[in-house]
Design a protein that fits this description.
Strand content: under 5%
Number of helices: 6
Order of helices and strands: HHEHHHHE
Shape: elongated
Largest sheet: 2 strands, antiparallel
Distance between the termini: 50 Å
Structural class: mainly alpha
Number of domains: 1
Helix content: 40-55%
């Protein structure tokens, strides 16, 4: 059932993402508004694909929550770089395009940023995908009665108990213990 649910949700999400990308192709990018609407839809397609794994039960079947560490250490740096490139390639001035172009020239990365001109859609999709990865599930809530201990793992999965310090040490002059032989070989 799990595989069928995940597969179904992934298929539906891929169809929705495809629809969003098709809508983006219908808008164009001649003006700043069209440009941002186009790449916003492409980013939304990436978000839909990432969220499909949460909704499809890929993780722990719990309530979605934001993972602060992923948001801060993955999404924020990716967002800064991608938005820098997307703003740089905006068709008309506005939203800081001229500042980004000047700063890119000042720090010597304008050639690198220009190289991404044909890949703004891919970067936008990736930005939505990484934002979606910032979400996780908490796992199902287990209700226990008052004073009820959590379930212990099966005996086969338990670790060997540590030797106690109270066990007497063998005398120093005692011969070393030999392993029992099975009589074979």
């Amino acid at each position: 059932m799990y595989g069928l649910t995940r597969a179904t949700v992934t298929l539906i999400s891929a169809a929705i993402a495809g629809l969003l990308i098709w809508l983006a192709t219908q808008i164009g990018s001649g003006s700043n508004g069209e440009y941002w609407a186009t790449y916003g839809l492409v980013a939304a397609a990436g978000l839909v694909m990432a969220l499909s794994q949460l909704l499809g039960g890929w993780t722990k079947w719990g309530w979605p929550r934001i993972s602060i560490s992923v948001l801060l250490w993955a999404f924020i740096p990716v967002a800064i770089v991608v938005l820098w490139i997307v703003i740089f390639h905006q068709p008309h001035h506005g939203l800081g395009r001229n500042h980004i172009r000047k700063w890119s020239n000042d720090i010597g990365i304008d050639g690198l940023v220009k190289d991404f001109k044909d890949y703004v859609a891919v970067l936008s999709f990736g930005l939505g995908l990484v934002f979606g990865y910032s979400f996780d599930t908490t796992g199902p809530i287990v209700h226990r009665g008052r004073g009820e201990a959590p379930a212990r793992p099966p005996v086969a999965e338990r670790a060997e108990p540590a030797p106690t310090r109270d066990a007497p040490a063998p005398p120093r002059d005692a011969p070393p213990e030999q392993e029992a032989h099975s009589g074979q070989g």
